[in-house]
Design the sequence.
């Protein structure tokens, strides 16, 4: 399970992608956002093998990339 929190200055949409170490998109979800704090929980990570992944958030004013390890 992965919890993501973003603070948006306007309502809109955000895309959350999880990309494996080979550059393949493992998860690609788009969500509606509201003004202020938005929490998203990704529960569907159990099928992913252990390894290094990149989390990409793109949307209103968000363009974030974070690397994380799934073990």
Sequence:
């Amino acid at each position: 399970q992965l919890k993501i929190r973003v603070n948006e200055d306007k309502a809109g949409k955000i895309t959350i992608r999880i990309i494996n170490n080979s550059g393949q998109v493992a998860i690609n979800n788009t969500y509606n956002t509201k003004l202020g704090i938005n929490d998203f929980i990704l529960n569907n990570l159990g099928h992913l093998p252990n390894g290094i992944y990149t989390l990409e958030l793109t949307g209103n004013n968000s363009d974030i990339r974070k690397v994380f390890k799934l073990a």
Observations:
- The beta strands are 2-8, 12-20, 25-33, 36-42, 51-59, 63-70.
